Amino acid sequence: MKLGMSLPQSDAELNTDTCDPYNNAELTLTLKLGFRQINPAAGAAEGTYHDYGRATAPNRKIVKWTVGSWNLWRKNFVDTAARFWNGKFWLSNNFPVYEIEKNGIKYRPNIWCLFKIEDRDIALGGHHHVIDVVRLHKSETWFGSHSKLYDSLDTNSVQKGTDSKGKAIMQRAHVHEVGHLLGLGHVDIGKAHCPPGGDTNASNCYGVADVDKYSVMGQGMQLRLSHAMPWRKAMVALSGKGNALTATDWEAKTQRIYPRIPAEVATNAMLTHRPLRK
Amino acid sequence: MPRTISRNLSMLILVLSGMAGLLGPAHATGKRCQMNAIERSKCIIEAILADISRTYKQVGGGGISAIKQNSTTSFTVSISQEERIDLLTYEATVDGKGKVSVKKTGEGTKSP
Hints:
The complex is a heterodimer of chains A (about 280) and B (about 110). By secondary structure, chain A is of the alpha+beta class. Chain A has five helices and 14 strands. Chain A has helices at about 65-85, 175-180, 210-215, 230-240, 260-265; strands at about 1-5, 10-15, 25-40, 45-50, 60-65, 90, 100, 105, 110-120, 130-135, 150, 155-160, 170, 250-255. In chain A, strands 1, 2, 3, 6, 9, 10, 11 and 14 form an eight-stranded mixed beta sheet that branches. In chain A, strands 4-5 form a two-stranded antiparallel ribbon. Chain A has a two-stranded antiparallel ribbon with strand order 7-8. Chain A is globular and about 70 Å long. By secondary structure, chain B is of the alpha+beta class. Helices cover about 45% and strands about 35% of the residues of chain B. In chain B, strands 1-2-3-4 form a four-stranded antiparallel beta sheet. Classes of the chains: A alpha+beta (about 280), B alpha+beta (about 110). The interface of A and B includes residues 58 and 145 of A.
């Protein structure tokens, strides 16, 4: 069975055809992105563009996209961002749904969280997000981008911060931005130094403690269980069961957990090693 | 004074003044910070920049994009980052000997 749904931030599809005593159902979130070139004015080969697209911000030198550079950048963006977020979480199924029976034994599958980016032609419409992209001149090392305005260097790994021991914290900006597009906020939102009602882009919201600075929704590249929230919300919507704010509903794991038989469900066992099945 | 001693003394003075610069440019300028408004604001900005080097850890981004004087003794430094501009506000005091001290009085963010 394949069950699909359009959510505000992505499309969700649950595939239970993959289920057997060892394999889980697969939940794929698909982000439909439209990329739009920002080129120098009046067809020039070189020009300038302001940080954040704001006329009062500093100018950076940009160059005209070529067909080759544009296709290469888009492919690199889609491949690397999808690889980062795809297949990293499993959700424990705590509801009697999607169960299968094989050789007289009932199995309850869990959910493997998959992710795809569809690079969709601008003319087609129907995007979750449209993103403008500038191609920086080779003399430029940085451009002020945000979730809807990227630059050609945003896929590179650069130092974002420094931890308490003086070690560099590296990040590829595009994977952080895709986190936002999936609905994730900055790592420290909700803590006293980053209240949800304040400016959640404030520097403190990117992490104060080292562990938070290293989060992909901080200044680093590490995933946290909380980053499974878009898939957990999708499961609540698709199944009609549970609440994403209840930690034990569709609980996230960063390790594969195998489908369970009723006795294992009763003890809430998490099977991280391949079990012996008949 | 023999010429060699005089030359050595001059070199020593040069080295010492260089070391004073390394120890903290704003503090080392002393009397010069009292001389006129340009020198005074320059001393304050140097002290602010020294504090930023010491305390601001999000070293990525586009660097300092503006330093704005809010009042005679207050300055705000803008630092460009992805998704935001960090705003650091400092209050400075210059004592009778021209010694500058600065204190960060605010940290904010401007979303683009």
